[in-house]
Amino acid sequence: MGVPRSYWQLPAVAATVAVTLGACSSFGGLTGDSAPPAPASTATAAPVSSNTSFASRVKAFFSGDSGNLNSPAAQSAAGTTEIECPSVEYRQGAATLAVNNPGAENTALSLRYQASFTQTARECILGGNSLTIKVGVQGRVVVGPAGGAGSINIPLRYALVREGAEPRTLWTKLFMVPVAIPQNQLNLPWLHIEEEMTVPRPSGDEVETYVIYIGFDPEGAGAARPKPAAKPRVARPR
Question: What's the pTM value of the predicted model, to 2 decimals?
Answer without folding.
Answer: 0.72
